[in-house]
Amino acid sequence: MLFSELGLSAELLRATEKQGYEEATPIQQQAIPHILEGRDLLAGAQTGTGKTAGFTLPLLQRLQASGTPGDKRRVRALIMVPTRELAAQVAESVHEYGQYLPFKSAVIFGGVSINPQLSKLRRGVDIVIATPGRLLDHMQRGSIRLGDVETLVLDEADRMLDMGFINDIRKIMQSMRGKRQNLLFSATFSREIKQLANEFLDAPVEIQIARQNTTAEQISQLVHPVDRSRKRELLSYLIGSGNWQQVLVFTRTKHLANRLSQQLEKDGLSSTAIHGNKTQGARTRALADFKNGKVRVLVATDIAARGLDIEQLPHVVNFELPHVPEDYVHRIGRTGRAGLDGEAVSLVCSDESKLLNDIERLLKRDIEKIVVPGFEPDESIKPVPIKNGRKKQSFKGKRHNHERKAPGHARRGRNQGQRSRRAA
User: Fold this and answer.
1) Which of 234, 386, 389, 407 has most Cβ atoms within 10 angstroms of its Cβ?
2) What is the pLDDT of residues 183-224, one digit of tens each?
3) CATH (one of 1.20.58.760, 3.40.50.300, 3.40.47.10, 3.90.70.10) for 3-208
4) C-alpha–C-alpha distance, residues 24 and 1, integer Å
5) Is 421 helix (H, G, I), strand (E, B) or coil?
6) Residues 287-327: pLDDT tens digits?
7) What is the pTM of this model?
8) How far is CA 342 from CA 49, 50, 287, 345, in A?
C-alpha cells in the first residue's frame, strides 16, 4: 500500500516523498488509519518496522486538522520514550515529517543541561518528545504543563517498564486532564504491558504485526562456540577476515565495553564504546562517528539495544549473551531494518549454555552453530556460573541493581531511585 492511499495530507505526503518513502510498511498500513480515526491503540511490532512513522504521521495530521497553533503555543502531543538515543531519533522523525507544517517540537532528556530545554519550552512548543525522568523534572519546576495534551504516545513501553519507569509514567499521566488519544507501542506484549494497557487505554484497537519475540526473517543468525578467553581474538579475526566495515558489538557490562573497545583499537580496529556512564555528548559523538564511518566498531551495553537507528547496519555481534532472552531480540533488531538483510553473530562460551538455551526456547528454534577453525573450544574447561546483576522487574516499579549505579544529575537529598532516572 502506498502512503498516498492512507489519507494523509499533501504536506505529509510531500515530506515522506522527500525522505524517499512511497510504500507503507505493515505497521504503518494498520496503525495510521486507526490513529487518524482517533482510536486508542495497542500495537506490537518488531524493531525496525517503521513504527515511528506509524504514529508520527497521523499524530501530525490530527494536530493539523484540529487547528494551527496560535501566539501562545501549548503542548498538544507528548511522546514518551525510555532512552536519550530513542528520544533524539523520534525527534528527528517529527522534524522531518513535519517540516511543511507550522508545529514546533522539543526533545527533553537527562544527562545534558536543562537550560536550553527550559528556554525552548518558554518559547512554546506543540509536541514534546521526552524521557520520563527529565519530564518529571520539568513538571516539578513548572516549566511544562500537560493539561492540553490531545495525543499521548508511549513508545517502547516494555523497555520503560523494564527500566523501572512505571511510577513515573503514572504520575505523568495523572497530570493530564480531559479526554485524549493514547497510543502504546511495544516490542513485546507481556502481562505487565497488558496491565498497563488496561489501566490507561480506552477500548484500544490491538495490532500485532508479528508473533511475539520473533526476529526479522532477513536477519541471519549464527553462533560460534568459543572459549571465554579467546572471544576477543575471534571477534578481531571475524571482522578482519570478513572485511566488516560497520559492526555493533554488545557486552553485558560497561567495564567490559570500555576494555573491549580498547583491545580492538590495539588490534588495529577503530572502535569506541557507548553505555550509561558516558555523558550524552560522548554518546552522541560516538554514534555519529560510527554512522559516518570514522569508527568501524561500536561496543555497547543494552542501553543501545533500542533507540539506535543505523541505516543499513550489516553486522551485530553478541560478544556476551544477555541475561534476559528478550534483550537478544532487541539487540539483533539493530540490523535487518526496513527490509534489508543483516547478520547477527553470537560468540558463546560454555558458561553461557543456559543463556543460549533460554534464547532458543524464546525463539522456538535452534540457532545454527559453527565452530571457526582454529578457535575450537577446549572441552576440558569447566563452565563458570554467570552472576545475574539484574533482579526481576516488578510492575510496582523496582529498579535493577545495575540501574541504581547509573550516573545522574539529581539535586542533593533525592533518593537513589530518582537519581537512576537521569541515566535515561
Assistant:
1) 234
2) 999 877 778 888 888 988 999 999 987 544 555 567 899 999
3) 3.40.50.300
4) 6
5) helix
6) 889 988 899 999 998 875 555 667 778 999 999 999 988 88
7) 0.66
8) 14, 16, 19, 10
Neighbours of 361 (CB within 10 A): 10
**CA pair distance 125, 74, nearest whole angstrom:** 6
pLDDT tens, 40-91?
999 987 666 788 999 999 999 999 998 777 667 899 999 999 988 889 889 9
With left for phi above 0 and alpha for psi between -120 and 50, is residue 65 left, alpha or beta?
A: alpha
- The answer to whether the beta carbons of residues 231 and 349 sit under 8 Å apart is yes
Instruction: Identify the burial level of 417 via C-beta atoms within 10 angstroms of its C-beta, where 0-12 means exposed, 13-18 middle and 19 or more buried.
Output: middle
Within 10 angstroms of residue 32's Cβ, the number of other Cβ atoms is 24
Residue 43's beta-bridge partner residues?
Answer: 185, 207
